[in-house]
Inverse folding.
DNA sequence: CCAATAGTGTCTGTGAGACAGTATGCT
DNA sequence: AGCATACTGTCTCACAGACACTATTGG
């Protein structure tokens, strides 16, 4: 076993500290000027993509576990993170799951893990709870785990095929994001501190998957009274320069408590 | 062990067939003319109330488990039943939990169960997933399980103290019911097949916990076009008799797909 | 007749959506 | 000037909320 495999050694040693049969998968949303993106891990050697996830320590709450897991992948500490659904169907354990288990065991064995207990633990039935997070992707430093080669942001409309039911988990998270739109701090969480109304509109359009009318969007948003107008953003283009805005955090939070409550 | 304790024998024998550490608790809502009610179990001998719940078989999905558990308590087969949240905090395992475990073990021991494995299984950390159901309580036949004396409908504003975090689970379910009000078949599920507009209004008022304006409520509801007006209901009182209505199921379902989408 | 509740009509304010008109930055 | 984009104003329609008015039932 190589020195670089210390994380694997830790994982094997720690298995006894985790709840069996329960896992957490995180759908981390970010927004990059035009597109809604999700944080994914790409496996080493094997062709496989998955959501960042992990297990729950016996001494730890599920929420704490989710924060810990996400901190490991993004190095962010104060993350907007909410549970949205628990996936407990038996359909999770079809051929795709068996395939995934083989890959997992192969990776572990390549790293020198031959412990039957560990390999069996991994292969048992898991119920996984989905968490979704909203982050400013400019502030993240994606870190792969020891199963994966890379950890990267992938546009929501160009997702590869993911392991087991992870595509389904992303779909569910996105539905949740849409339904809860009026109660979530999407703007503050997903945008940089200064942004234009066009940026904000593109964010909403990316989430809702439909075009919005520019002038009405601007009027309705500004009417909420949660923005601070800053200097103009000179782009060098031959047109009027848009204003930059930032959020008035206090008013934003006040508003979120009762729900923004308007249509788009 | 008495013959009447067969369910206990089954339970002990079946423990190996259940997923360890995971349970399901159901918040079953019913509406009885004036009040929103929840189905609760009252324990034998011990002073304790709890939600109907159970465990997940290894070969069974969580949704199937929830339906099975609820069928056992209500004898209803086609139930509107949705998962709403998974409770995985460590705060669940405070003094109240320890107290509950003692009571559970006492009941089991009184029934002749001395098997250490069973008693330990019960006492381990559980993550529980909450399901909520909407039923017409006139059609149910509440059945206590072998821990409980009675299974009965309790008004939502007169809940007793429940075991562990079950009060919290009810609160969360109620929040969920309110938020999702426009997307749920509350009327069809909770009311008898024939009802007056006043019945429907009282149901909404019970859920939203606020009075609604009579004439506007009626106008908005009828405008949805999902009701069939039937004969008048002669009450014998000295006032105009209200019409009875039933739901036009097809139109109701069409409408629910896009959400009712109005304010109350 | 009256009392009580059911059902309908009307008015006002708000806001969404459509779109016209004005302002600005650069070539 | 001309073009492109940003911002503002105006119009219409729909609907929520308040409340007045009519209808019905039985004392």
């Amino acid at each position: 076993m190589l020195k670089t495999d210390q994380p694997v050694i830790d994982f094997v040693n720690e298995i006894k500290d985790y709840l069996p049969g329960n896992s957490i998968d995180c759908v981390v949303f970010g927004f990059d000027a035009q597109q809604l993106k999700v944080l994914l891990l790409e496996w080493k050697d094997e062709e496989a993509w998955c959501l960042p996830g992990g297990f729950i320590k016996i001494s730890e709450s599920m929420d704490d576990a989710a924060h810990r897991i996400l901190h490991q992948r993004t190095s962010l500490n104060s993350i907007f993170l909410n549970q949205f659904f628990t996936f407990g169907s038996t359909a999770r354990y079809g051929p795709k799951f068996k395939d995934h288990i083989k890959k997992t065991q192969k990776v572990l064995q390549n790293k020198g893990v031959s412990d039957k207990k560990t390999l069996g633990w991994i292969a048992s039935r898991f119920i996984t709870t989905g968490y979704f997070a909203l982050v400013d992707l400019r502030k993240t430093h994606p870190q792969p785990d020891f199963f994966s080669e890379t950890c990267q942001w992938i546009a929501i409309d160009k997702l590869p095929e993911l392991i087991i039911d992870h595509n389904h988990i992303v779909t569910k998270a996105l539905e949740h994001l849409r339904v809860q739109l009026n109660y979530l701090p999407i703007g503050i969480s997903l945008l940089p501190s200064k942004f234009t109304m066009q940026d904000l509109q593109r964010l909403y359009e990316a989430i809702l998957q439909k075009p919005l009318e520019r002038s009405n969007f601007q009027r309705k948003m500004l009417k909420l009274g949660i923005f601070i107008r800053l200097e103009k953003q000179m782009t060098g283009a031959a047109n009027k320069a848009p204003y930059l805005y930032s959020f008035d955090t206090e008013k934003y939070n006040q508003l979120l408590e009762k729900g923004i409550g308007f249509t788009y």
Q: What stands out?
A: Strands of chain B lie at 18-32, 35-43, 49-50, 53-57, 80-87, 127-134, 148-155, 227-232, 243-247. Chain B has a mean pLDDT of 88.
